[in-house]
Design a protein that fits this description.
The protein has 570 residues and is an alpha/beta fold. The chain is built from 22 helices and 20 strands.
Length: 570
């Protein structure tokens, strides 16, 4: 950011100069009355920062999430006050639970009108408290620079999360004499301790358990990605020879073909790691939070095992599952320390048990998913052809539902930060705008957006953003004319009473064409391979609609309330 020795600036221009100081390259947003001064100042800087005009504020925040998840940088979005700000709430909640660093800047009515129910006035500060890591209201131009800088620091440091900054309209218009003395970068904030002190005694105790365990299991989550600790993690598991299972958001830390990788955990995860979680003698949880989709019934979860938990957020220790050795701190540092103390080891007999159970899953589930005998197309065989024709460093962006689970199970991950999805909140409509952010973050990487016919219609207007900005995304729409995951539960647990889950859909091909997106629809198996190949080789955006089996269920499955080793194959 270039600041003259001393100059008088509008608060709105200070906003833009601060973002440039933070090296922001993209802003995802939607203008309106209360943020118009900021947009007016932005006009003078569009040669150095790109604004992506989304078609809905929820699309803007999901795009910022996609950008942050793909790049590891902070995603930024702008909205106006009132409905513009409230449309961010779902994305804020999503970003908080999935630890995504974003900074949202919203306008607000002038300070003299606060509390008067003025046009488009909403108390977004109080509304957003439960779904932000930090939020603040700015009433004076002099507070803009340091408040935004503070917001960036909080969003990124420690466990990442969303920040919301509200700026009143009069603060945007207010002039302030700005000079070099104002530009003092925040390195710390009073009472903000993002990185807990790592206690060496717990490192040594953990190493002792690891060195003596006969049946250890590592479960890895997104925390390793957020800490940029992939190298240290790989060193740790390859030295100890411990098998690794991943949470949904931990996918892509290891390549899918890594010999120590034994599959995905959770309700629709792989059979072996779920079963053997309740047979291991040592469970090492790294950068994950023991959410209910991983643990199943917590009263029956790994009760036979000692548990080591590497975690940056003190709140997560003993929240859901009691651990024997808590290792608080940045896992990049913790893993380095552990590597020093652990012995070189192998666990071939123990790992062979995972492979035996894997063969059982192949017989009952995987073979039918990937090479079905039934007439209709399955989601699994779509993934088989995607794996054949995708680029090695492709980024997979999924929406929420059956397709999300199938894609996560079968996609061949071979590159870090190649899995972007809504994990904790399960936000339908996430994928299309998140794909936009991911593609802008990595223009040279192929982005594959896999969506269902329900979820895509929640944010389908973002095809307008693809049109306007000429963004290249491979969109694969798996259409069963149902809200598939809800229908599956209705089939299995509600005696096939399909209440309000059948969809009468529009002509997706005409819709895509209206946005100048090439599109094709197929419904026969002999069309599938060539259509997937065409989609993934096309240089611009392409929507491939695939009509799939209506009652194609996702297995394995842990029924609600069941233990992880009560997982069903059929």
């Amino acid at each position: 950011m270039t600041i003259k020795k001393e100059e008088e600036l509008l608060g709105s221009e200070i906003v833009i100069k601060t973002l440039l100081h933070e090296k922001v390259k993209y802003i995802f947003g939607y203008p309106g009355g209360a943020i118009m001064p900021i947009y007016d100042s932005l006009h003078n800087y569009l040669n150095v920062v790109s604004h992506i005009l989304m078609r809905h504020e929820q699309g803007a925040i999901h795009a910022a999430q996609g950008y942050a998840r793909a790049t590891g940088k902070i995603g930024v979005c702008f909205t106006t006050s009132g409905p513009g700000a409230t449309n961010l709430i779902t994305g804020l909640a999503d970003a908080l639970i999935d630890s995504t660093p974003i900074v949202c800047i919203t306008g607000q009515v002038s300070s003299a009108l606060l509390g008067t129910d003025a046009f488009q006035e909403t108390n977004i500060i109080d509304i957003s408290i439960p779904v932000t890591k930090w939020n603040t209201q700015i009433l004076n131009a002099k507070d803009i620079f340091h408040s935004i800088q503070k917001g960036f620091l909080i969003a990124k440091k420690g466990r990442p999360g969303p920040v919301l900054i509200e700026i009143t309209k009069d603060a945007q218009f207010q002039k302030y004499i700005f000079n070099q003395k104002n530009i003092i970068s925040y390195t710390e904030i009073k009472n903000f301790r993002p990185y807990p002190y790592i206690q060496e005694k717990y490192i040594k105790q953990a190493a002792n358990l690891i060195n003596t365990a006969q049946k250890p299991l590592v479960i890895v989550g997104q925390g390793v990605i957020l800490a940029k600790a992939e190298y240290e993690f790989t060193q740790f598991i390859e030295k100890t020879g411990i098998p690794v299972a991943s949470t949904l958001l931990g996918l892509s830390i290891l390549e899918s073909c890594h010999p120590l990788y034994v599959g995905m955990l959770g309700m629709h995860g792989n059979y072996a790691p779920n079963i053997l979680t309740n047979q291991c003698d040592l469970l090492i949880a790294i950068g994950m939070r023991f959410d209910d989709r991983v643990t199943g019934n917590v009263q029956k979860y790994a009760t036979q095992a000692k548990i080591i938990h590497l975690e940056i957020d003190p709140y997560e220790i003993n929240k859901n599952i009691l651990c024997h050795i808590p290792i608080l701190g940045d896992c990049k540092v913790s893993l380095k320390k552990l590597i020093y103390y652990v012995n070189k080891s192998y666990h071939k007999t123990w790992i062979s048990q995972f492979y035996k159970l894997r063969k059982k899953e192949e017989i009952y589930v995987i073979q039918e998913d990937l090479n079905p005998l039934k007439k209709g197309i399955t989601m699994g065989e779509v993934m088989k052809w995607i794996n054949k024709y995708k680029q090695k460093d492709s980024i997979l962006v999924t929406d929420v539902g059956q397709h999300q689970m199938i894609a996560s199970r079968y996609f061949n991950f071979s590159c870090i930060r190649s899995n972007i999805t809504s994990g904790g909140l399960g936000t339908m409509g996430f994928a299309l705008p998140a794909s936009i952010g991911a593609k802008l973050g990595y223009k040279n990487r192929q982005v594959i957006c896999i969506v269902g016919d329900g979820g895509i219609q929640m944010t389908i207007q973002e095809m307008g953003t693809i049109l306007q900005n000429k963004i290249s995304i491979s969109i694969i729409l798996l259409n069963n004319n149902f809200l598939g995951m809800v229908r599956q539960w209705q089939q299995l647990f509600f005696k096939k009473r399909y209440s309000c889950t059948k969809l009468i859909n529009p002509d997706f091909i005409k819709l895509a064409n209206a946005y100048n997106i090439k599109a094709k629809k197929i419904d026969k198996r002999n069309q599938l391979e060539s259509a997937v190949k065409e989609t993934l080789n096309y240089k611009q955006s392409f929507l491939l609609e695939i009509i799939i089996e209506k009652e194609n269920n996702v297995f394995p499955m842990i029924p609600s309330g069941a233990a992880v080793d009560e997982i069903r194959l059929t």
